[in-house]
Amino acid sequence: MVFWSFLYEQSLTQNVLSWFLFFYGVVFPILLLLSVLGLKGFLEITRYESGKTFLYKLNPLTKIIFGVVVMIVASTTIWWIGAILTLAVMFLYFTLTNGVRKFVYITILNAITIIGGTWGIAPYTPTSILQMVFPNPSSYTTVWVWPSYFTIMGYEPTLTLQALIYGLQISFRITAVLDSALLLILSTTTSDIFRMFSKIKVPLAVTFSILVGLRTVPRIFELFDTSIKMQFARGLGYNKPKIVNAFYFLYAGILAIVPTMVYLLRGAKNLAISADTRGFRAYNSRTSLVHLSIGKMDYIMFVIIIGLIVLDILANIYGFGRSIPYVGF
């Protein structure tokens, strides 16, 4: 029993605060993303910048294998191994161009992901799943009781401390995969990814779709950021108190959706014309003057990858293995 239990025992406060918590779960991570990380920060952490450190010299295939192995280890071992992996991958960001700034950005993004992931999982986790982690339901601490109609939205009748801990543990699996995936995007050109996919015989249509996605994500945030700034340049929120700036920012974001979509659609049309004029998909494969090779750094990374696989096997043998849904504390 928590000391604020009287709040959910009264119908009025229960309904008002439940809806506040609902919108908190939806809006708060987005507000954090926009206000703390910012569109510029998100743009910078999803866009390639050239560099000379070892990550830039790795074969793209090595980085993809590393990301896949990190995902497997994080999803099949106990949560704190995923947390350690997250920290280890985060420190690799120091080796990137403007590494300190990127480390700060990825730290903020991980914090937002943990908050959003915990809140996105905890209210929906049924007791049958929690019992796999916390075997004794009678020891659960009730944090909040939702109105009965919240079950229509998939909410469990009560939110427990154990559900929040469970959500927190699951979120570390997400951050480990997210960090390793962004590491690939930040340190690899789309041309090298294309060459790598061509080498392992991935169909051109699939390769083209993936590359368009990689190039479009940072472009979306760049256009969105520009469109929002244009709204303020036209006088939106001029001379208004700073306390309402957040609401004007959200309003500017809504107004920026249409011009962003128009720019993206025009860009997609130009991209299609450009691909056609260059004879893309005229043949099943394309020739390349640059050939990707496996170097010394790749072999070092393969040793690390093998070490991670061994760690995964040992963790499962000695009782630290967990599967999805997460089983065990």
Describe it for me?
The protein is mainly α and 329 residues long. It folds into two domains: 18-188 and 294-318, no CATH class; 195-278, no CATH class. It is built from 13 helices and two strands; from the N terminus they run αααααααββαααααα. It has helices at 5-9, 11-44, 54-57, 60-76, 79-92, 99-121, 127-133, 161-187, 190-199, 204-233, 245-255, 257-277, 296-317; strands spanning 142-145, 158-160. A two-stranded antiparallel sheet has the order 1-2.
Can you tell me the number of structural domains?
Answer: 2
Percent of residues in beta strands: under 5%
Helix/strand order, N-terminal first: HHHHHHHEEHHHHHH
Q: In DSSP terms, counting alpha (H) and pi (I) runs of 4 or more, how many helices?
A: 13
- Main beta-sheet annotation: 2 strands, antiparallel
Report the mean per-residue pLDDT as an integer.
84
Rounded to an integer in angstroms, the radius of gyration calculated over CA atoms is 23 Å
- What is the CA–CA distance across the termini? 22 Å
Structural class by helix and strand composition: mainly alpha
User: Could you give the order of strands across the largest sheet?
Assistant: 1-2
Low-pLDDT stretches are: none
Question: What best-fitting shape do the alpha-carbon axes yield?
Answer: globular
Helix content: 55-70%
How many strands appear in the DSSP assignment? 2
